[in-house]
Amino acid sequence: MDTLATLQSMGLTLPSPAYIVGAILFGILGMAAYWHGKKAQRPRTKWLGVALMFYPYAVPSTWLLYLVGLGLCAGVWFDLA
Fold this sequence. Notes:
By secondary structure, this protein is mainly alpha-helical. It has one domain (15-80). It has helices at 3-9, 17-39, 43-54, 62-80. The chain is elongated, with a radius of gyration of 16 Å.
């Protein structure tokens, strides 16, 4: 039995490599922002880090993943500046 064909017939597809790389990248950046926000007692940076870590689970397309990720990274940048 071909499990990939079965999953595709159910409407499930595997994410592209660009999506996987983006999810890992923004997850690592979110973890760093969370740790820095916690250490520096900056709640906005900490919560932006949490958002960076978990939003890829809710975003279905690659272009939206990068758009939201860059927006959240900009939020962290401006909060720290």
